[in-house]
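look at this one:
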Amino acid sequence: MDRKVRVRFAPSPTGPLHIGGVRTALYNYLFAKQHGGDFVFRIEDTDSNRFVPGAEEYIIESFRWLGIKFDEGVGFGGEHGPYRQSERRDIYKKYVDQLLAEGKAYIAFDTPEELDAKRQEIQNFQYDAKTRMQMRNSLTLSQEEVSALIDDGQQYVVRFKIEPGQEVVVDDIIRGKVSIKSDILDDKVLYKSADELPTYHLANIVDDHLMEITHVIRGEEWLPSAPLHVLLYAAFGWTDTMPRFAHLPLLLKPEGKGKLSKRDGDRLGFPVFPLEWHDPKSGEVSSGYREAGYFSEAVINFLALLGWNPGTEQEMFTLEELASQFSLEKCSKAGAKFDYKKCQWFNHAYILQKSAEEIAVLFAPAVANNGVDESLERITAVVRMMKDRVTFVSELWPLCSFFFIAPHSYDEKTVKKRWKEYSPQQMSELRDVLYALDDFSIENQEKAVMAWIESKEYKLGDIMNAFRLCLVGEGKGPGMFDISAFLGKSETLRRLDAAIAALPQQA
């Protein structure tokens, strides 16, 4: 019988959410949406020593910003809770006891010092079928000794008893069938008495089973653990309902070899976290895509294509389009190079795609913060002229400030290049031409000025370059009549007068 598709994303609250984790969550979300399934949000907080305050809230806020919605889980409710592993101690203990009772796990009392000594004694030591009988555990101690140690408050762990000579097959949607011999696996710790919590390996198996997870889509780094997880499903008798696995390719450094790290971001100047993160312990602040000015759609679009290819030329996708086209079978086995410049390209593409009105709302606070009281209508008019020139909204103010604030000085290089000995005279004449106009529209200005230039046999470049210098203060900006029409007649004349008065001394 076909089961309803159910997938999960289960981060640990040990710090900010890495961009690789975001991609994993995105692929889970797209897979769930495509199959009309559920997307579950779980918190894996079994490692109490590494817990970082605020990390859980940060993760939830990241997904809220990205537009990735969960159907159930921590903060969202549902019928399979609790969804926080630290609140499921009693559930895990029941399954630990089951494995112990069935002889599929055992209690080990070895201290860190004893384990270190054994590592010194045996090269490449691992706790397994070859070595377990040399250790201090319930396989080598009597029941009385075990009970006495527990009653005495001795800390212990529960280890999974892996039998050698088995062939373990992991059927991976991306990588196909992966086969390994159980002989190379160690007896992994499943439970620690110190904090009465299971390790990830046991907790995620039990949770996935009880929450009816059908597909486990996670990073490639978990592939070595997959055989252990297959054996655990078998040990519990859950093989028939075991989820299908898909191990996603790693995100690789933009330059050189190896896995993407925060250091790459720090070195090359791009974020590796969705939101800015303030480390509560060190006080260190790490940049985030949101605060750096990226649109969430650009980040989503960029991440979706890191490891998955739709097989078409299309690059711009809505979340809905991604969900309809996504396929795990089209995911790459090879790692995906993190080309952060491509993410910037996407951000620029979304600026082009968005209306001037949308961008103006985002740009308006920057205008106000620079002491300019301007209407949204006029800000929108500037954005319409300039948005195709920027990658981020934050780049608009340095590019557009001249629309709102008259130049206080004039760029020396531009003056040297564009302000000729005859420029003051020509600009005075241009001023008179413009002064005479009642209709200061772009079209009417252009008609009058072009006729004047022709009649005087002036060079168009000389006039326009000097005109731009007068209004802008340097050699940048859109068409000159777009600028002067926006400024209006009185401001255009005022700026011409100021430049004519100031510039001869600089020429």
